[in-house]
Amino acid sequence: MSSKLPPAFIRSLIEHYNIEEEEFISSHESGEQLTSVRINPFKPSNLFNAEEQVPWCGNGRYLKERPSFTADPLFHAGCYYVQEASSMFLEQVLKHSANLSENLRVLDLCAAPGGKSTLISSLLNKNSLLLANEIIKTRVPVLCDNLSKWGPENTYVSNNDPKDFKRLEGYFDVIVADAPCSGSGMFRKDPAAINEWSESAVELCSQRQKRILADAYPALKQNGTLIYSTCSYSKQENEEISDWLCEEFDLSPIQIPLKPEWGIIETLSDKHKCFGYRFYPHKVKGEGFFIAAFRKNQLTASPHIKRAKENSVNVKIEDLIRRWLKHTEDVRIVNLNDEYFAIPGRHEADLQYLQSNLYLKKSGVRIGKIMGKDLVPNHELAISLLAGSVLPEINLSREQSIAYLKRDELRIESDIRGWALMCFQGHPMGWAKILDNRLNNYFPKEIRITNPNVV
To answer: Cα–Cα distance between 378 and 382 in angstroms, integer?
Structure first.
């Protein structure tokens, strides 16, 4: 028996899943730490081309060692996301449970810090809509920042309780619920989680998970896909939740094809034989994880989405803004609270519908404000996929990039005057305004590098 892992926890895994006790415990006590990243397909670089691929995720890569991501300008430019490998299996679940070629509305219900949201964004077509919701207000800024760095304009962020989504009956084609859990799947990665685990905490999490799912269920349309996941090993939070879902709602389980060499364990719940997928660190290169998918059979009313109100943006202002954008044929410019945003043209009615029902914190790409006759561009525009190729760019060295990201004094020789994109290896990190005798750094203070050891 392990001297570190809770005895009740080990007994439960042996009883319910006949886990290989010695190998499982050894994997947790070995001290091994895995690092994996997922490449942004919208911002390709050659940084991780030679690294081992995560077998169930096309853009996932295992790293031989953990570098200082904070000291990498490409990380700040959104060229990749640091994500645990097991959770990248969401890619397989989405590909086999939803038609990603269609224009979908997708809700990531418990989204911060944004790993699954950025993965979903990579798989959707440009006309689809992704709403990433975070319940905890203090976690919303990092979610917004990570989705902004990823680039596409078809993403939105809300800060709402799951019960608020009852108002959006039948709206979403896919709901992903990576529910708060007891965290036993993170024992190897975060040993401090061991001290927080208890059987009572598992039961409490199970009740919370049921509430979250029950609240969100009405927002899923008929034939839509519900994807449920946790970073827990506990049966009460996984297979028993699957059985509960099929008892309470009209859902059918979806089987996801596996390759034997992946080492992922397919399970069946006791009552309804729902398919579930378990990740054990002694069998896969990843941490503990569980995921299951369901199809909604129940007839659900269609959402009542009114025709979009007429766009009220001044023609001259819109022309000015569009000169900053790379492509504009399918982009709508909207004005919200004296700021201008870019969203896919087909989303205008959706945006108004979401605004009337939810507390939105991000809507497409925030372009900036009009001051006098000029646009003061927002940081979101700089790191989006919309920033125009005709805009002035200055490619910085790594040392200059770190200084820029710290908001340290930066001197460069350039004939450019006015706004310019500060880039590293061709990837924008943010704005600067270049004057005759100085450079004004507009990298946001709230996300600047504050660690003095990063050089």
So the answer is: 7
CB 453 within 8 A of CB 435: no
Question: Which region holds residue 275: left if phi is over 0, alpha if psi is between -120 and 50, else beta?
Answer: beta
Q: Which residue has the tokens 């004057």?
A: 435
Q: How is residue 435 annotated by DSSP?
A: -
The position carrying tokens 């990665």 is 189
Q: What is the DSSP letter of 42?
A: T
- Judge if the upstream peptide bond of residue 7 is cis by omega within 30 degrees of 0: no
- Tell me if 210 sits within 8 A of 241, measured CB to CB: yes
Q: Give the model's pLDDT for residue 1.
A: 47
What 340-346 contacts at long range (C-beta under 8 Å, 24+ apart), as own/partner pairs, is 340/313, 340/366, 340/367, 340/368, 340/369, 340/370, 340/375, 341/365, 341/366, 341/367, 342/153, 342/367, 342/381, 342/384, 342/386, 343/153, 343/154, 344/126, 344/127, 344/129, 344/153, 344/154, 346/103, 346/127
Report the pLDDT value the prediction gives residue 103, as an integer from 0 to 100: 97
Q: Which residues are catalytic?
A: 231
Give me the residues of the chain with pLDDT under 50, please: 1
What are 421-438's pLDDT values in tens digits?
Answer: 999 999 999 999 999 888
Whole-Å CA distances, 426 to 62, 387, 415:
24, 13, 18
**Cβ atoms of residues 289 and 278 within 8 Å:** yes
The pLDDT, as a whole number, for residue 455 is: 82
Pairwise CA distance, residues 120 & 107, whole Å: 10
Query: How many angstroms separate the CA atoms of 279 and 88, rounded?
Result: 11
- What is the end-to-end Cα distance of the chain in Å, rounded? 45
Would you put residue 152 in left (φ > 0), alpha (ψ -120 to 50) or beta?
beta
Q: 106-117 in b/e burial notation, b at 16+ Cβ within 10 A?
A: bbbbbbbbbbbb
Cβ within 8 Å of residue 337, ≥6 positions away:
none
Q: How far is CA 170 from the centre of its chain?
A: 23
